[in-house]
C-alpha cells in the first residue's frame, strides 16, 4: 500500500470524526441546532470527505464528477435550509482546513514523506476548489430560480380571474404593468378563459396607476388575443386622467369600454334580459 493510499484509507475511516469536528466548531453559526439537523450536516460532510479520500485510494474513480454531483446536491439543500450565501461558502471552504489538519497529524505519526504530501495536495486541493466553485454557482442558480418562482407566483396572484357566471368573469388589475407582467397576465387570462369557457371578460383598470404607449400596446395585445379565442373583452375603470393621456398620445383601443365595473355588469345583465325577451 502506498503512502497516499494509506492516508486515503485513514480519511475514509475518520470521515465522521472530521465531519463532526467541523460541525461542532461551526455550531454557533448554524441556523438550526436540532439533533436531526446536525446529524444530516455531519452525514453530508462525511460523504464529501469520503469522495476526496477515495480519490487517493482509487486513481481510476471519476472523483471530479462525484464531487460535482455532491456539491450541487448540497447547494440545493443550503437553499432549502435558507442558509446565507456567505455562511454557506465559508462552511464549504473549511473542508480544506479540517482534512489537512487530520493529514498533518497522521503524517507526523506515520512519518509520511514530503513527496507524498505534495502529490496529495495536487489531488486534494483541486477537488476542494472545484467543490467550492460548483457549490457557489449552484447556490446562485438555485437562488435565482427561487426568486423567479416567487416573482411568477406574485404576478399570477396579481392577475386574478374571478368567474361570476358560467360564461362571464372579471380580471381586476392593480399597479404598474410592465412587459414581463403583461406576458404573465396574457398567459393567465388565455389559459383560464379557455379552461372556464369564458364568453365575456371584464378587465378592470381602475387600479392601474399609469397607462403609457407601452402599457396600452400590452393591453391591446391581451384583448386581441381574447377576441381570437372567441372571448369578448370589455375594459372598465379607465380613469379620466389616464383617458386624457391616451388621447394626447394618440392611443386608441378597438374594444368596448365602460366607465365602471358596476356599470359594465349592470349593462351585461340588461342586455341579456332584453335578448331573452
UniProtKB/TrEMBL annotation:
Q: Where is the STAS domain?
A: 158-268
Keyword Glycosyltransferase carried by entry: no
Q: Name one Pfam family in it.
A: STAS
Keywords, alphabetical = Phosphoprotein
Report which superkingdom the organism of origin falls in.
Answer: Bacteria
Q: What is this protein called?
A: STAS domain-containing protein
Protein's organism = Pontibacillus yanchengensis
Amino acid at each position: 500500500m502506498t503512502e497516499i493510499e494509506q492516508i486515503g484509507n485513514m480519511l475514509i475511516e475518520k470521515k465522521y470524526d472530521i465531519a463532526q469536528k467541523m460541525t461542532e466548531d461551526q455550531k454557533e453559526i448554524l441556523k438550526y441546532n436540532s439533533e436531526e439537523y446536525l446529524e444530516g450536516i455531519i452525514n453530508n460532510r462525511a460523504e464529501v470527505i469520503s469522495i476526496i479520500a477515495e480519490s487517493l485510494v482509487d486513481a481510476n474513480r471519476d472523483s471530479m464528477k462525484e464531487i460535482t454531483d455532491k456539491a450541487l446536491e448540497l447547494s440545493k439543500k443550503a437553499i432549502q435550509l435558507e442558509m446565507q450565501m456567505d455562511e454557506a461558502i465559508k462552511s464549504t471552504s473549511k473542508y480544506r482546513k479540517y482534512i489537512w489538519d487530520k493529514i498533518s497529524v497522521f503524517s507526523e505519526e506515520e512519518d509520511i514523506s514530503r513527496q507524498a504530501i505534495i502529490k496529495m495536495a495536487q489531488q486534494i486541493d483541486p477537488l476542494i476548489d472545484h467543490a467550492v466553485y460548483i457549490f457557489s454557482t449552484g447556490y446562485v442558480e438555485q437562488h435565482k430560480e427561487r426568486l423567479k418562482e416567487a416573482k411568477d407566483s406574485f404576478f399570477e396572484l396579481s392577475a386574478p380571474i374571478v368567474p361570476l357566471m358560467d360564461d362571464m368573469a372579471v380580471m381586476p388589475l392593480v399597479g404598474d404593468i410592465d412587459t414581463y407582467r403583461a406576458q404573465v397576465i396574457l398567459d393567465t387570462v388565455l389559459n383560464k378563459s379557455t379552461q372556464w369557457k369564458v364568453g365575456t371578460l371584464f378587465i378592470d383598470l381602475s387600479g392601474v396607476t399609469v397607462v403609457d404607449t407601452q402599457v396600452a400596446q400590452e393591453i391591446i395585445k391581451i384583448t386581441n388575443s381574447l377576441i381570437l379565442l372567441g372571448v369578448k373583452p370589455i375594459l372598465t375603470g379607465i380613469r379620466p386622467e389616464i383617458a386624457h393621456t391616451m388621447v394626447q398620445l394618440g392611443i386608441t383601443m378597438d374594444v368596448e369600454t365602460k366607465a365602471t365595473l358596476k356599470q359594465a355588469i349592470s349593462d351585461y345583465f340588461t342586455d341579456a334580459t332584453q335578448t331573452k325577451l
